[in-house]
Amino acid sequence: MINFNSVYQFVNDGKRMRIIHLDVTSDICLYVYLEQAFSMPIMGSINDMQIKSDNADIVEIADPYFMIKSDKNLKASEIAKRDEAWRIIEVYWDNKKMAILTKHTRTAIFKEISRIENIPMVRVRRIFSRFWQRGMNRNALLPDYAKSGGKGQERILKEKNGRRRIYSNNKANGIIISECIKKQFEAGTNKYWRTNQQKSLRQVYRLILADFYSITVKKNNEIEKIIRDEGMIPTFRQYYYWFKKNENTELDIKMRKGEKEFELKHRSLLSNSTIESPGPGFRFQIDATVADLYIVSEVDRSKIIGRPTVYIIIDVFSRMITGCYVGLESPSWNGAMMVLDSMVADKVELCRKYNIQIESEDWPCCFLPKTIIADRGELEGYGVKNLINNLNITIENTSPYRGDYKGIVERFFRTVNARIKSFLPGAIMKDYRKRGDPDYRLDSKLTLKEITEIILRSVLLHNIHEIEKYPLTPAMIKDNVKPVPLDLWNWGTAHKKGILRKVDRQIFRLNIMPRGKGTISRGTIVFKNLSYGATELLNEHIYKQHKIKTVEIVYDPRNMEQIYWLKEDGHQYITLNLLDKSRHFKDMYLEDVIATHKKAASLRHEARKSQLQQETELDQRILKIAKHARKKTNTDINANISKTKRLKNIGNNRAEEKERNRKIEAFMPCNDNSGGIVPFPIEQSPMDFQDQDNKNLDYNAQMMKKIRQRKEKAKHEKSKS
């Protein structure tokens, strides 16, 4: 169907036309072309137009001149010209419409209007042509001021534009910025501006002059660059104009400060975190920061122990803080374990430890979420797989240096640090400390327990504090829900929008603690080269009957005095204590234990290295002695004596050799007053030597028998105990 004031386009040549009049009874339609400067109405048939439309020879398109403009945004001159032209349309269009549309009477009407209104004939034609082409309404008669001046088009200049130089001694007016100079500007900008050195625009301009508008001379064997005369170089204002005209802010920030900086602080914000979480528990954010405060020891307040680390878990939907931990652990899995444990803990008991009395309704958060967003530092450790596999929690790690991915928890950290700086002694005052001022670290007065109480009270205040710019939904507004975390949490849980899950705290701890393999042998378990034992291990059938050699161990790397043998059912466990032979590793962290064993292994390696050399030297000496002995013995052996005879005389030979050795080895007191008395040895028969040997053998046998009896008795008493 052909519609009045609609725009159609011819498919074959692309021309556009607007229907300005329809007469169904006479089957007449009048239209004007939009591309012509002065377009007068052309008569056609409605049926012909309909046939062309049905055959897709013409198609209806969007009105190219449709616009929404308010008089507030128009200049006074634009409004005056529009209203003057509209007055002419109102006077003559409705009264003489058919005469104007008819071709043979149109010129006479236009001449009459020109005479009455005292305006040129061309202006009359332009007013009506613009009225027909642009939608036949008041704003169709607005002048095209937007097209004035050639906006966005490059001008071809024959001389330098802009004001003349006043203070220059050179009569030259300057140079025109040609295409060649623009390429030099672009090359210099890419080389000096778009780098991580972050030079100023003035420095970049000077370097461009040194590269393209200088003369190179050699003075004292050194190369120098002399800038040309000011009439032959572009001014800084010319370069600045070109720079601002072609500035690419996104590229400049990425090249000068890095892409991460751009994504963090300058990217377009098209959404918010709340959209990703339709209810409580869908998504928690976890993060850690080092507090801007120095604290003192709980035991000795004169000792400054540095800055504590604050861990926070926050629900994205309600902005409710669900977990909090303040400790001395640097941002790592050890600290993340503690804040995850506080996430499922009873908050009434947690606050009572720090002298804060609350009701369960004040902080009703002890649940597991569906997803946790964290940095790689916190949730990239031992227990992450257990959270995923055993507790069905999705872990999302953010990119490095992208705090904007956890903007909600980052906002809380800024608020807490601002409060700390305002009230607490020992706070870091970077902006106010001058040379000679006292060190703020010496003002430290608070302990870890006291700062934890302050953080917990800040958390409780946050949970009942208004969240600025929170996107309340129509359903929330209908139920009179205030933009307060506690109210949002309660509303979300009441309307079943959350997916909160509760878990036993002890089971949760077993899942977040790291795991490893221990070796079981003879009633002890060896783990990380430390020996552990338990009463249950005395029942040997536990590992002998089932032939268990390795067991799964759950442990806390901060306390290696106790580890836990997790049984196959995943719920029961055996507590293992450090045995006496490993007791010297008591009160050590796991990293200290590993470092100690590593040092011991290094010392053993050094010992083996020197021992190997000594053993090699000993082997060579033994071989040398054996070779020498073999040579001398072979010389002394009488070839005429048979082997049987040599073996038969071993006893006699031994007795003779023993007697000779006794004479040599006998203790002879060296006394100068002995009068030179020389003792004579008493001759003994071979039988005497044999009797003495038999006595020695009997004594040795008796001693070995007593030793065996003593060992068997000790073993029996040990097994009985």
TrEMBL record:
Domain Integrase catalytic: residue ranges: 276-482
GO molecular function, one term: nucleic acid binding
Gene3D superfamilies in the cross-refs: Ribonuclease H-like superfamily/Ribonuclease H
InterPro entries (alphabetical): Integrase_cat-core (IPR001584), RNaseH-like_sf (IPR012337), RNaseH_sf (IPR036397), Transposase-like_Mu_C (IPR015378)
One GO BP annotation of this record: DNA integration
Protein's name in the database: Integrase catalytic domain-containing protein
Provenance organism: Pectinatus brassicae
